[in-house]
Structures are given as C-alpha cells and as structure tokens.
Amino acid sequence: MKIAILSDSHDHIDNLRKVLEQAKGAGAEAVIFCGDMCAPATAKIFAEVELPVYAVFGNCDEDQYQIALRGGAKFKIVGLAEEYHQIELGKRKIAICHYPKLADLLSKTGEYDAVFFGHTHQGGMGNHGKTLLLNPGAVCGIKDGKYDEATFAIYDTDTNSAELDVIK
Residue 90 in contact with residue 158, Cβ under 8 Å? Predict the structure, then answer.
C-alpha cells in the first residue's frame, strides 16, 4: 500500500491540490497529514480527493472543530486529545505527530514500523532500528522564512520505505 505523507500546508491551497493529484498519480491509497493546515477551508480540499485522510493537528491549527467538520466523510482527525496518535495501515503500525522531539522519542520505542511528523518544514528521513522516522517537509514550500521547494513523501507499507518528492 502506498500512502502520501504531507505536512505544513499553511493554507497554500494550490500546492495542496497539486500534491494530492500527484500522490493519486503515484498510486497513493491514503493520505497522512502531520499538522498545520491552518484555516478550516483548507480541510475542504481533502474532501475533493476521495482518499482516506488521517490527520493530527499542529500548532497553527486553531479552529480544530471547523477543520474536522469541513474535511468530509473520509477525513479522520486521529489525534484530538493527544500529542500523537497511532494507526494501522497496510499491516504497519504507524505513529503520527506534529513535533520532531516527540517523533524522535516515539521512533526509539521500537513499537512502530514508521513515525511521521512535521513542524520544521525540513524534509528528511532516517531509521531507529526497524522504525522509519520521516518528515515530509512542507506543502507550503516555505523554509526558514523563504520560499523553497514544496515537498511531500510517498510511503510504501510493503517495504517500510519512503521517497521524498517535490510538488510539481
């Protein structure tokens, strides 16, 4: 199973639409969003793609109720009361959060096949033992206060590996 891993769209709706189409073209069957959508209207874009979406909130997601409401029937907020949440997709146990320090701690427990996070807008990945630790970068394309490449990742549950890609 292929899963699109996204984070930090910060209301960049054009990039969000592009990346969702690009992900579908790459064979993604689901989307994981690691926080910082920002405005509730952005959540509506996920409803257009007709894929299941698993999302956690970030530090810029203030109107969480409206974000959840506008995301549509296949949009699942999986981390309302907690700093992280875990799901199982494609026979893989996955932890999703927004913050890198928490992601690092989760990856070191050995309980997960993969841990996905955002917040820093810097894409990258590594491993702690068998656990893949991945930040897909930022859908908004802003890094260190400047426009840069907008990035995301495609995660393959069959191989427990991912590839970072640029939004085109």
Answer: yes
